[in-house]
Write a structure and sequence with these properties.
three-stranded antiparallel beta sheet, signal, mainly alpha, transmembrane helix, 60% helix, membrane, 194 residues
């Protein structure tokens, strides 16, 4: 079932990517129909005499990207316009909102597919998966050892008896006991051989 869900997720993701690519290809050419939000001229003008600095944005063509066409209303009188415009730095900026939208759609599709897969793993997979006859006794044995080690160790009142730290400590104690038993058997065998 999880394999079938993964294949379905892959098919859905690939179909979303295909639709996004087709919308990019079939959309009108970028140079022919640039929307007003895709192009702009940005002029940064520093403080001049008693006028504070300001940033001006306007949707104009690249050839008209200068202080005279972008800065409106002109904050200085007519004889100071040239000096004021020499201080301003104007840059022409382009972007593709279509590309941005497609990238966001792809990103959201991948995140959505991962969330669906996580929901499947959390909710449906435990219901489908049956306990294995071989691993179940081993799991029960580990739980019994955990219970014995927790019963042997003093726990403070009010604390949760099954915290991660206590489980790690219990596993560490079991490992230490196993190592000591192995050492003991190795030394006993060594004494018998000598």
């Amino acid at each position: 079932a999880s394999t079938m869900f993964a294949q379905c997720t892959q098919k859905c993701t690939s179909s979303v990517l295909l639709i996004a690519l087709l919308s990019c290809i079939l959309s009108p050419p970028a140079q022919a129909s640039k929307s007003s939000e895709d192009i702009r001229c940005k002029c940064i003008c520093p403080p001049y005499r008693n006028i504070s600095g300001h940033i001006y944005n306007k949707n104009v063509s690249q050839k008209d990207c200068n202080c005279l066409h972008v800065v409106e209303p002109m904050p200085v009188p007519g004889n100071d316009v040239e000096a004021y415009c020499l201080l301003c730095e104007c840059k022409y900026e382009e972007r593709s909102t279509t590309t941005i939208k497609v990238i966001i759609i792809i990103y959201l599709s991948v995140v959505g597919a991962l969330l669906l897969y996580m929901a499947f793993l959390v909710l449906v997979d435990p219901l489908i998966r049956k306990p294995d006859a071989y691993t179940q006794p081993l799991h029960n044995e580990e739980e019994n050892e955990d219970a014995r080690s927790l019963a042997a160790a003093p726990t403070p009142s009010g604390a949760r008896a099954n915290t991660v730290l206590e489980r790690v400590e219990g596993a560490q104690q079991r490992w230490k006991r196993q190592v000591q038993e192995q050492r003991k058997t190795v030394f006993d065998r060594h004494k018998m051989l000598s």
